[in-house]
């Protein structure tokens, strides 16, 4: 684990979720070193968030901000649990490096340079809870049994008799208890249905998030493989061109060597021909001894006469 290069504040991205409205969050990065540091921001849901700027350079002991904007949502999510994450990569770079020169290779772990990676989680804050998921306690429901007892008559061939005073009081006392029990049962049923709906929606949302994450990782792997393939292809092309140049140089040197050998053979033949023409006679180089003696005698004579 490499040393921390950046100081990040805040450590979480908080978004207010509201239908058909964008939500933004700002993150401040502080350089904790005495060197220039480059950073890059990645997310597991690139289609859902917009990061500006997603790359940058921070001066020694300097600070830099970037803003994350969550795109417009068609409807507020029923589940505020979010598995989206952001990754901030940072690495030390030489002085004078421009933002256009920042590449993914700078943040590779096998580059030998100190690399710092931080993960930030996303927190969703919603508006007041939707009535569909709100508890149903306190909602008044109509008691169908109460209406039947008050307004309807039991159809039969016998005339309905007026109840006695004690039966009327018992029936009046039973009506509120029945109504309370029906209201409680209805509230419980609606609460269970709402909870089941919330659980099912949460499960679907998690499955969708997992699928999106898998798609994102797949796309990232495909991009990395495509880049590596292009780099290998360019290296192979460069090696091929160098090989062609080397073959041309070797052919040229071979041709020059053949010419040199032919010239050497021609010189040998000429020397052999000259020896044959001379017939084995020895050629003396320089002046003959008699000539030297005559010149010396004449010189002594002239010198003696001059004295």
From TrEMBL:
Residues forming coiled coils:
222-270
Keywords of the record: Coiled coil, Membrane, Transmembrane, Transmembrane helix
What Pfam families does UniProt report for this protein, alphabetically? Motile_Sperm
Q: PROSITE patterns given for it?
A: MSP
Transmembrane ranges, per UniProt, are: 283-306
Give the MSP domain ranges: 5-125
Under the heading Gene3D superfamilies, the entry gives: Immunoglobulins
Q: Which domain of life is it from?
A: Eukaryota
Q: Name one GO biological process term.
A: endoplasmic reticulum-plasma membrane tethering
Cellular component GO terms, alphabetical: endoplasmic reticulum membrane; plasma membrane
What family, per the record? Belongs to the VAMP-associated protein (VAP) (TC 9.B.17) family.
Stated name of the protein: MSP domain-containing protein
Q: Which organism is it from?
A: Beta vulgaris subsp. vulgaris
The upper taxonomy is:
Eukaryota, Viridiplantae, Streptophyta, Embryophyta, Tracheophyta
